[in-house]
Input
Amino acid sequence: MSIHIEAKHGDIAETILLPGDPLRAKWIAETFFENPFCFNKVRSMLGYTGTYNGKRISVMGTGMGVPSISIYAHELITEYDVKNLIRVGTSGSYQEYIKIRDIVLAMAASSNSGVNELRFSGADYAPTANFDLFQKAVETAKEKQIPIKAGNVFTSDEFYADDFESYKKWSKFGVLCVDMETAGLYTIAAKHNVKALTILTISDSLVTGERTTARERETTFKDMVEIAIELA
Output
């Protein structure tokens, strides 16, 4: 048992899916897992372990933002020996050609978070995906005929930015979309020499103003889960 996770050692599989929303974790477990059981209810951050095609796999919510996912990722790695951490999250598009419900694989994560600036004494650190997981995700998407985009994403500490137009300076440099967790996840995984990958579904667009509902985000983004779950 760790500070924020009440699971016993051995309750959590080496591969875990990490949605931000704990209710999406519950939906994933009930929809995709065989014989799932709940290993965590602390702070209502639901976590489950089951099997998929005979292989053990877990899923747990992480909350929103770099600090939250960094806490859970650290405890999962150091206390429960998790080796593969796969974020399955939502994101806002920064590009006109990236539409609602498109799937994005995050190759790297730019950020306005100050966490790594503190960690590296003012120097820039570029958090990146694990190549093995990335390559397997690309191959799985091709096999399942699920179109994907891949590239740099932006991890923001702000959901409601003071300057709404500020996303445009990132989009001009090819950044695909924005989330609030990937830079934190990739950094913690690198620190502990484990594998991490973020797979995102576009839930809204900063370019067009389109957006999906909270219920749709919780229960209908199946394509990214179908890719992620094969990585176990």
Summary: The chain has a mean pLDDT of 96. Helices lie at 22-32, 66-80, 115-119, 131-143, 167-171, 182-191, 214-219, 222-229.
